[in-house]
Amino acid sequence: MKVRVDVMLKDGVLDPQGEAVRHALGALGFAGVEGVRQGKVIELELADGTPESEVGRMCEQLLANTVIESYRIVME
Amino acid sequence: MKVRVDVMLKDGVLDPQGEAVRHALGALGFAGVEGVRQGKVIELELADGTPESEVGRMCEQLLANTVIESYRIVME
């Protein structure tokens, strides 16, 4: 089974990577880009029947730094 | 309007970051992790009415390296 995990910096945490992308898009002539946040997406191929709670533990222990990052689990 | 862009390494392109995560999950005792691919997620706050084709141009010109990466646009 496939599981996707999105890891994003929490609101209020400075995102220099996203800011750099925003500036670069403006420099390339794209207008109307009001904000950019960049995060990670992790696609896991897991044994069938793996519960979402186990994926949650993976996030808490390794995939996300929960001090500054939030995560979202999508069972596909 | 919010637009999400997922940028993943194409199949066949070696993903050392994903491999490192797979090994680390195994070392932490998570069984049944058969594969991990890691990519980027970019959340854009754009002017209302921005067409998907414009986001596609952003991906081609800046957000993705289309030689080794594929992208998916999700208009939210």
UniProtKB/TrEMBL annotation, chains A, B:
Q: Name one GO cellular component term.
A: cytoplasm
Q: Is the keyword Amino-acid biosynthesis assigned to this protein?
A: no
Q: Which InterPro entries match?
A: PurS (IPR003850), PurS-like_sf (IPR036604)
Task: Write down the chemical reaction(s) this protein catalyses.
Answer: N(2)-formyl-N(1)-(5-phospho-beta-D-ribosyl)glycinamide + L-glutamine + ATP + H2O = 2-formamido-N(1)-(5-O-phospho-beta-D-ribosyl)acetamidine + L-glutamate + ADP + phosphate + H(+)
Keyword Cytoplasm among UniProt keywords? yes
Assigned EC number: 6.3.5.3
**Protein location:** Cytoplasm
Please give the biological process terms from Gene Ontology that the record holds. 'de novo' IMP biosynthetic process
Pfam families membership = PurS
Looking at its record, which EC class is this enzyme? Answer: ligase
Extract one GO molecular function annotation from the record: phosphoribosylformylglycinamidine synthase activity
- Source organism's superkingdom? Bacteria
Subunit structure and binding partners: Part of the FGAM synthase complex composed of 1 PurL, 1 PurQ and 2 PurS subunits.
The family note in this entry says:
Belongs to the PurS family.
| HAMAP family linked to this entry | PurS
Role noted for this protein: Part of the phosphoribosylformylglycinamidine synthase complex involved in the purines biosynthetic pathway. Catalyzes the ATP-dependent conversion of formylglycinamide ribonucleotide (FGAR) and glutamine to yield formylglycinamidine ribonucleotide (FGAM) and glutamate. The FGAM synthase complex is composed of three subunits. PurQ produces an ammonia molecule by converting glutamine to glutamate. PurL transfers the ammonia molecule to FGAR to form FGAM in an ATP-dependent manner.
How is this protein named in the record?
Phosphoribosylformylglycinamidine synthase subunit PurS
